[in-house]
């Protein structure tokens, strides 16, 4: 790394799952001199023992707030996003317009790098997606799930914007569900997928014996929040060339493992019929937005992480099963 001065890093959404894992690493890293964070709700960095982070309240929909936050930034890490929302217009304003606005503000500030937390969902859940997706496979909007559609749209838009602005390198990280002690997003998505067994989990938590429960054997990838944060840090430092990187824990688990981690007694059923049914349900008109997450079960979205290992120098330290255990 040729850079000698300490980096100023601006982070949108530093108070979410990713931010709470990344900021302590930025705080500890000697190569980072200053961290400025922006999100909407009140937050006291000192309460977390953080001294480098200057926290500002603001909204990514407000270009002036972004401009003020990014002033002097060498790197912008964009994490602010509304994962679950019933209102498509609000989601679009925060997620799509907010992300593109953040990129424009990063360019205007003269930032050398823009690091964006994309998702495995950017690949969509198409039947011809290989299991073991590599970064050269096309990202294509999902059929139904708005979150995944926005991720694919944003990746394409950011790649075009990067080509127009060669002074600002764009890094796109594609994690699967992120787990760990602060994993609010993952905790929201997983219980949605497991909604039918939630009453059973509650019963087990009250000390009742676990009844057997039929669970589809569908493969899943997870990644621990600390491993995501280390990948983000490597992008912040420019440890590898710009571009997209898949990241995930080494082990591919199944919904059966998830059920077991929740204290249930899973009885395995083949995943294929559930995948087929999910595909059909995802096409039902006027499906409530929360139900659209069923599309994620229509085809296994399993990534190959060789590029992040060999080019970025990243490797996961936590297994998916450990991450599950730490979350629940
Ligand atoms: N968690 C996962 O499992 C997962 C997996 C793959 C990809 N990702 C992606 O990773 C990124 C970060 O996810 P996360 O899990 O850290 O999300 P999160 O836990 O929901 O945190 C979102 C952060 O963004 C802030 N925020 C939301 N709306 C904002 C707005 N309008 N203006 C300013 N700040 C706003 C939130 O604070 P306030 O609410 O106080 O504003 C919070 O700090 C997202 O792009 C997400 O899609 C997440």
Features:
alpha/beta, Rossmann fold, seven-stranded parallel β-sheet, two-stranded parallel ribbon, globular, binds NADP nicotinamide-adenine-dinucleotide phosphate
Task: Report on the architecture of this protein.
The structure is a single chain. This protein has 328 residues and is of the alpha/beta class. It has 2 domains: 7-178 and 222-248 and 301-316, Rossmann fold, CATH 3.40.50.720; 184-219 and 254-297, no CATH class. 38% of the residues lie in helices and 18% in strands. The chain is built from 11 helices and 13 strands. It has a 7-stranded parallel beta sheet, sandwiched between helices. Strands 7-10 form a two-stranded parallel sheet. Helix 3 (88-108) links the parallel strand 4 (75-78) and strand 5 (113-117). The protein is globular and about 60 Å long. The two termini are 39 Å apart. The model has no long low-confidence stretch (mean pLDDT 93). The site of NADP nicotinamide-adenine-dinucleotide phosphate (NAP) has 29 residues, from helix 1, strand 2, helix 3, strand 7 and helix 5. NADP nicotinamide-adenine-dinucleotide phosphate (NAP) is lined by residues 12-13, 15-19, 38-41, 59-61, 79-83, 94, 98, 117, 119, 175, 177-178, 184-186.
Please provide a brief summary of the model.
With 328 residues, this protein is of the alpha/beta class. It folds into 2 domains: 7-178 and 222-248 and 301-316, Rossmann fold; 184-219 and 254-297, no CATH class.
